[in-house]
Amino acid sequence: MEANTKQLQQDGLRIDGRRPKEIRKINIRLGVFGQADGSAYIEQGKTKVLATVYGPHQPRGSAAKNVSTKTVKGIVNCQYSTAVFSFGAGERKRRPRGDRKSLERSLQLRHAMEAIIHLDLMARSQIDIFVEILQVDGSEFCVAVNAATLALVDAGIPIKDYAVGCSVTVADNATTDDKGTQRIGLLDANYMEECTPGVTLSIVSLPGHNIEIPIGNSVLIVQGSGQRLHLSRLEELRMMAIEGCRDIRTILDEAVKHHLNIYSSHTAD
């Protein structure tokens, strides 16, 4: 990995041939799961995620007990899980769901979805969002947010904006090299880059938010992992991740338009 880091410094390219601010290739399919009200499948690099949406429907289980006639907003239930076969040949996830990390990701995903859904239009209703990580190759939570957003669109649930996730990694245990030059942030990191000593910053934002509103107000989630990050670099990396969110949003929006064009043509026939 040390040799790979040096190669990045010499020719400006990363392990997979991308430039530091270049996101991975994204493949998208909507409406892939017929039994759900909405579904989306995303391949971002080698990270593969399936998201399904059920609802709105009447609250069930424990949620039904907390709903009263005075409830003015809908309820969002999220489940984030990772398939046991999602890692490489030498690794297996013992518990696909229910562990601490999955529960934390489920709560974060719910927070992001609650921020974009018009819950005031769905009083005394529940929306279930299930996300399954089929293959892990870095930035899987960010890809999960993107997939869940598209699944909501496919389900016809009104949203305020796309919630889009993107990560940025400083792939070294130091923020500067031997010459005092700052390490370059790597946008949309893959698994190998995330595993290097360093820090990864994952951001979920509303990149299509009203331009008159300060950009900081459009950030929903900021999540850091790895080594400590010097405060002087936080804003730079945050802005880099938000720019990545904007690029990804453009791709998501094009996928939605393509899907709607195909759907409308089939309906016309």
Please explain how this structure is put together.
The protein is of the alpha+beta class and 269 residues long. The protein is 33% helix and 24% strand. The protein has six helices and nine strands. Strand 4, helix 3 and strand 5 (126-135) form a beta-alpha-beta unit. Helix 3 (100-116) crosses helix 4.
Q: What does the main sheet amount to?
A: 5 strands, mixed
| Shape label | globular
* DSSP summary, beta strand count: 9
First and last CA, distance: 55 Å
Order of helices and strands: HEEEHEHEHEEHEEH
List the helices and strands and how they pair.
Elements: H1 2-11, E1 26-30, E2 38-44, E3 47-57, H2 62-65, E4 75-82, H3 100-116, E5 126-135, H4 140-154, E6 164-170, E7 186-187, H5 191-194, E8 199-205, E9 219-226, H6 231-268
Parallel strand pairs: 4-5
Antiparallel strand pairs: 1-2, 2-3, 3-5, 6-7, 6-8, 8-9
Helix pairs in contact: 3-4
Brief descriptors of the model:
single chain, 269 residues, alpha+beta, 5-stranded mixed beta sheet, 4-stranded antiparallel beta sheet, 24% strand, globular, disordered N terminus
What's this entry about, in short?
With 269 residues, the protein is an alpha+beta fold.
